[in-house]
Structures are given as C-alpha cells and as structure tokens.
Amino acid sequence: MLNRFMQMRLRDLIILAVILFALPLFLNNPFHYDLATQMAIIAATVVGLNLLVGFAGQISLGHAGFFGLGAYFTGIMTSNYGWSSVPALVVGAILVGIVAWIVGRPILRLKGHYLSMATLAVGFIIAIILNNERALTGGPDGMPVPAFTVFGWELSPFGSYNLLGMELNGSEAWYLFAAVVLLVAVWLAQNLIDSPIGRALRSVHGSEVAARVVGVDTARYKSLVFVVSAIYASAMGSLYAHFQGFITPAVAGFDFSILFITMVVLGGMGSTMGVILGAVVLKLLPQVLADFQELETVMFGAILMLTMIFMPKGLLPTIQTAVGKRMKKKAGGQA
C-alpha cells in the first residue's frame, strides 16, 4: 500500500514538473511570466499551510504573519546590513520557526473557533508591529528590497541571463527559479506526508483522542507541523520580497491570510496538487474578472460560494472522484 502511495506521489510530481516547464510555451510577455512566478511562490506557501490544515486538521487564519516576517527579515538584512539573500532567507526561516514554536505551544491547545481566533490574533499582532516599527520596516509606506543574490550572482526581473545556451530575460529566469522552488517544496511535503510524522498528523486529524490513546504525542506533532508550515511561509515570503522589489505590511495582513486559507479549502484540503490548483485559480480569477469592473468582487465571491456548495471537498478531489467514477462505469460497461 505504501509503495502505491509513493508511486502516486512521484507521478504527481512528474506531472507538475512537466506542466511547469511546458508553461513558458504559452506565456507571451513579462506580465504573464510575473503572474506565473507569483503563482509558484504562493503555491509553495499554501503547500506548507496544507500540511497544517489539510493533514493535521489545525486551522490558521494568521499565516500571512509568518510570510510577512520572512519578507521583512530578508528585506531588512539585505538592505540595511549587507547580507546575501540566501543567508537572510535561511536565518529568517529559522527565527520564524522559533517564533512559531513559542506561540504555537499554547494556542494549539485550543480547538475550533478558539484556535481560529488565536491564530488570527497572531497575524494581527505581527502586522501591527510591522506597521509601527517605522525605523526598521518603513511603516505603512513599506521598504525596497534588493535583487536576489547567491554566490555573487544576481537574479533581477530586469536582468538578462544565459542558461544552457538559452538567452533569458529577468522575468523568464525568475519563473524558472520559482518553478524549481515549487517542485522542491512539493517534494519535501510529500516526503513528510509519507513518513511516520505524516501518519501521526493524519491520526491527529482523524481523532485527536484516539491518537493519544495509541501513544501519539499530539501536542508535539501539532507544534512540529505548525513550525514547518511557518518555515514554508517565511522562506516564500523572502523570495516574494526579492521578486517584488518592494514590500509593505500588507504582505502580513488579514487579506493575505484569508487568501492562503481559501486556496487550501478551494483546491482541496489534504491534496498537495489540489492546493496548487487552488492557488492558480485564485490568482487567475481577478485577471479574468477584471473586465467586469465593479462586479468583479461580487462575481469572485459568487464563484467561490458555488464551488464550495457543489464541490465541498475542493476542486481537484471532486474532479478526480468524477473521473474515477466515469472510468469505472466505462470499465463495467465493457465487461
């Protein structure tokens, strides 16, 4: 059974890689590449959040706070203290993981609405701090962030690069980099899911009482996955800051947190590929509905509402179930 699941994960990863590296054939200008890059970075963020929400069954309505902390730590250290991007990203992720562990231990004892409100409060506190610490963060006006650098090599949306004989502009190079990051994020998540830790998380989701009865240290595993999801958010926040070149406290705000959790729910909780689909859909919808002007928000909400009513398990699990039933029906008819 485990081998079958591992084969399915590998198949999904290969399919995702093919889609990501074939996508440039359909991207016509820098705007398309920039949008695809944002999708990849945000998709990697919600892959981490899905470990917490979809597999461990713990809600978080303030996850953008960790995303914002990673973005601002990288921005401050590279802009003001001359750090290289990779050390700033790594140290920022470690520090955010420590913060997540400190705040996660007490709040993860809560359940249901109480847990939702506690995580929401964490996000609000982080956003308020980023708004008020003007000397470090620039306050509501935000701050510039330099280009991403590694070993003296600079990745800028305005640069020009040669990769294996191919001439790439900055937008194309950033997309390929973000695509590789997304694949690595998915691979790490899949390995965690298929490990004993992943099985413990699923047991916590199924029944926390039953998990404790069979010897699962539920508090430890909930804290662990909370820290892992925060590290995902921090690392992707750092990349997002470098890619955008400018950040404001909005990256840690309530809107981003709701966007992240909606992507998980819409795509399919507990489905790694599903949450990536949710990220793509929610990033594309505003572009598709832009022509409707004042009706855009209404139509956006209506689409989400109808999806949740008729596809309560999420987009991808519902599609997979429908395809599976049709294939079984055809196989039965042929027999």
From TrEMBL:
GO cellular component: plasma membrane
Recorded GO MF terms: branched-chain amino acid transmembrane transporter activity
Subcellular location(s) of the protein: Cell inner membrane
Annotated organism of origin: Marinobacter pelagius
Pfam families in alphabetical order: BPD_transp_2 (PF02653)
Keyword tags: Cell membrane, Membrane, Transmembrane, Transmembrane helix
Protein name listed in UniProt: Amino acid/amide ABC transporter membrane protein 2, HAAT family
Membrane-crossing residue ranges in chain numbering: 38-57, 64-83, 89-107, 114-130, 173-193, 224-243, 258-285, 297-316
Main location: membrane
Membrane topology summary: Multi-pass membrane protein
